Amino acid sequence: MKKNFSFKIVLFFAFFLFFSFVILSNAEAAPISRIMDPAAGSWLSNKENGNWFDVKDTCDVAPCTCFYKISHGGGFTVANASRICNSDWSFEVVKNNCPSNGVNTCTVIVYSKNADGIPSANHTRVYNTDWYVSAVIPGSTNPVLPLDGVGKRWAKNDFTVHIKYSDNPGGLTSSKVSKLSSCDYSVTSGSDPEVIISGAACSGAFETDRDQPVTVGIGKNCHEQGADMCKIKGITKDRAGNTYTTAEWKIAVDWEKPVIANLRPTSALFYTPTLLRADVTDNMEIQSCLFYIDTNNDGSYEYEAPADTEAGGTKMNRTIYTSYTFCAVGTKVYITCTDVAGNTETFSKTITPNNATLDTKGPDSIFEGDTPPEGAYIPVNSSFTAHILDNDSPPPTPPSGQGTAYYKILDHGSCVRGCDNKLTRPWGKSGNSSNFAITTGETGDISKDCTRTVFANGEALTCEIRVWSVDCAGNQGPTASRKFNIGEDTEIPKAEIISPAAGSWQKSPSLSAGFKFTDNGGLLKCEYLVQSFDDSGAVITPPVDSWTNIPCNGTNFVINKNILVGAAKSCHSQGNNKCKISVRATDLRNNVSTDCSDPLTPNACRSFSIDWTAPTVTRIVPFVAPRGESEVFSSDISDLNLTSGTGSGFGEHSCDFQISAEDSPTNYSFNGEMAISFSDPADNKKGVAKIAYAFMDAGNHYAYAHCIDLAGNESVPAGKRIFVDKRPKVSAPGITAEKYCLPIAWQGQINLGWTYKDDDGNNQTQYQFQVSTDPSFASIDIDCTHDELVLPNGEGTSALKVSTLPDNDCNNPKIGYNQTYYWRVRVKDDVVDEFGISYGGLWSNWSTPSVTISTQSHPSPFVDFLCDDNDCESTRIVENAPVTLRSTSEAAPGYSIENCKWTLPNGTNMVTGNKNSDCTITVKFPIGEDQEIKLEASDSSGYSCVLTKEINVKRPYPWWREITPFNW
Known about the structure:
Number of helices: 1
Radius of gyration: 50 Å
Helix content: under 10%
Number of strands: 67
Structural class: mainly beta
Strand content: over 45%
């Protein structure tokens, strides 16, 4: 019995030792976790549910806990997300975790811990991200397809679609997208399935333009006709797997011409309106039809078919008609129709009129237009025109008088042209008149019509023109005759402008211009021309842009004319010399006066300065004036409302001021020196009128100004209340604090301060500070103005950052290391009068002397540390369990961390390392709940910074074991 009991005891202890060994062995074994897919460096794309990561973990004894972290931009968007390990598991990276695009922008870390908290090694992979879909932008087509009036584009033959493929949206740089991998397009014809066509290779570009051909016709890409029967889409994909397809681009297709048939009638009555009709059909829609009545089909008569049809047909089946009166035998009629796609067809037919209606009235022959009057003197080497008119009333459309014109030219009674009536010309093709030119020359010139001159005894009427015509019915009209004198008057008349003076300013409603015309033998015609010019010197067409006749006679003639001035009138462009008047005269021998380009007749034209707009006076400044100081008091002035251009403007004549204690002006003069300056001296369109004035009394004052320009237009007086106050003061500017150990690496901060004072008790509302490396502030590095409310005798503050990359951004101004700077400040008060109206206040003078700022030679070290390679504040630290503290501090470029000093909670036991010098130590913490760890890191130049973190020390989990029951 005892032997059996002893054996059981020995067996028990053996089992106990075995299971203890197993448990302890498993507790010390570390798990392994790693990412299986995707491979490092892969592009993560904008999938609907993010990108999935397949993870493999190995854990010999369960349970194990698996963790993953996602890093973006140096921080963790997902930190220590955990789950129970199940050998193989997956998790998702969504766009919010890694929001930026580019190479190496997303880092994924996985690791595991076993039941005793022993972690595996971190498994890290870095990925590229491209969350943006590729863009496909349909561009213009080549050739451009026409629109049918309602937004459809019609294709009648092959065309090219220009597509822009892009994977660089939103102005991103090329390093942040994954490049194009395919550039395709699709074509769908009618109800057929979509056909995807591989475009040209993208060659990994970020953006490319392609001309993608589309064929139209039977058996081609677009082989069905009709509206929106051809649909095109652009398709592209980038190397990250993002895809994009555009909306359909719809094209209407029609390659068939209209069909024209049954042009009727086949015959018509002479001089009787006849209805012409033709039947037109089209497979889609008829757009327009035109009738042409001409043997050469040159469009001389062109009749557009009415929108509505005679028989009420559809747009695909119409009867096109028009009315025409025939007066010639064998007239050929053409009809040309075009459908909505631009397909055109022409049909023609010869129509023979019969049963002629009698026309017994012949056409009249008259002279009109620019033909000289009867008995006029015609200079040598001149020409003129005669006209023919058929006065049948009422005339059909086109006129029934279409026929032939005849003329004869007789020189001193002898026929020189058209003598046998064989020189004819048709007339009436495009209206009811025809013309032909008659030329004159010197005696003996057989190439001219009339060459005989007036004899010494005054014999006249040496050249005669006779014209008559016959209509297509054979009726001859009466003969018209006109006789002329061929003279040798070589002395030209003279035309000049005598008033007003050149360049003088004129205002609405008109200017009175005096004209003088003289000639040795007699004036035939006197004329003037008005022209307006824009700022570039180009002529602006006036309401009347041609020469205007003035009745004149005799040899010496003077007349005054009123030239209208103003918008939509003769002189309608304002500015310096913007209106030009020219005059000319013609004598009885058709000699014409010279223009003003001739130095002998400079007054044949004259330019005037035009201004009908009154000046404006606005924005009297200052709104607040300093008490007891001489201040420039100014007002903005402008005229013509113009801002640019040359050679025009108004030129201020005078500006007057009044400064008064009254709230209304009593006069417009100020007894003091006044200066007027202009922003554009060449034009004098806008400027500032200024006076110097010192306000001795505080409180309200009133200022008024008004101006008169050179044309005599007077402005409306402008008035402004001005509040007089004392300037604020700034004192004791200095540096209130300097910090070079900040949570942001390589950045320090210098705080600036000053004392605000104001004798009137007004608050500070703004301050402006400047920083410069030049003590004279000839150049400025930082110039910033900020709003800040400070009470009198209060402290104003501002701050500068010290950075390796100085920046003058006023929201975060930065200066550089190892530099000497100077800074100064000025302040602005808030002036409120007795009515409670704020005027914005006055600025103080700049603080003097400037304050010197000397920055340290380089950035202080950036201090940080980890607990067991994890964040100390989120790591579970167990009482008396070894914890490794490792510094991750960094020194500025060019320097190194030389020393670390740890400040630990009371009772901390050192395991390895020296807490006063080593940057990595292992310690054990006693229980103490929340405690602090401090690390002071020093660089090789002696600069140091301190970082404090809180830790929470926990007691270990209770230890337990299972005891197998014994049968004693």
